[in-house]
Amino acid sequence: LYDPSGQxxxxxxxxxxxxxxxxxxxxxxxxxxxxxxxxxxxxxKSIRTLCSxxxxxxxxxxxxxxxxxxxxxxxxxxxxISIEKGTRQQVEGHGGIVxxxxxxxxxxxxxxxxxxxxxxxxSQARPRELAKGASLGSISLSPAGDVVAIGGEPRGELxxxxxxGGGLVEEHDLGPRQQDPGEGDPLLFAA
Length: 191
Fold this sequence. Notes:
Helix content: under 10%
Number of strands: 16
Shape: globular
Mean pLDDT: 74
Strand order of the largest sheet: 1-2-3-4
Radius of gyration: 17 Å
Order of helices and strands: EEEEEEEEEEEEEEEE
Largest sheet: 4 strands, antiparallel
Low-confidence stretches: 165-169, 177-191
Strand content: over 45%
């Protein structure tokens, strides 16, 4: 963990590195190695372990209540885990390995992309297909949650999908990227 000047202020050793994310409020950090841990900031002391297994992707709700994870062991589904209580809900619906996951800012919907070429949105644990195409590797939601960006294979194409009233209302093909992304290469919206 580094401060803005580049000075290391704390460190945490994990046997395998993976995705990391700050919980809202900047008091906790979710660390992924072979376990998903909640760490206190700035000392990086373990508060609790949420799950074990190699975490491939994670997304935190804006209010910090839940985290969505894709694990190597359960790669065809997404697990929603309460950060405070550790309770879990598993959502399924893909026919291929899930590459990335994102939670809407209000936590009402969970979005995932998969090698089966589908972008799914869940509310109330029922999947709804928003897009289908080639293998999809990455996903990002705009801060307002009304635009979903997806990146896919094999040519590194990007698409922006505009949600409205619970359904897809516009689709914008952003064309191929300069280089092909790897599966799971992150997409981020600027705030």
